[in-house]
Design goal:
The chain is mostly beta strands and 122 residues long. β7 and β8 form a beta hairpin.
Amino acid sequence: QVQLVESGGGLVQAGGSLRLSCTASGRTFSTGAMGWFRQAPGKERKFVGVISWSEPTTYYAEFVKGRFTISRDNAKNTVYLEMNSLKSDDTGVYYCGAGRFMSMKPQLYDSWGQGTQVTVSS
């Protein structure tokens, strides 16, 4: 299994920026992709973006394109989510997931972090 720990969340004003981190440990050798998802209370977990460990390649949800970027540091086993021009509807708990393939479907990820809260004030 892969253990994941997110960090970097907090309270930010609309238009501001945050950088989230997700550090992986354990059996990471089978991980081909790291996805970012967010979830508001009472709502489904929603795809934000994903990065592969190969080239790397990235894919983003339409609503974050041009604002969010995903990067990775292979030596640190860490994936980052840079969030810029934050909006109030970006508020939620952000989770990273580890899976063997790039996917927008949360059920295809094998491991999840505990989540980190992002709150964007208007």
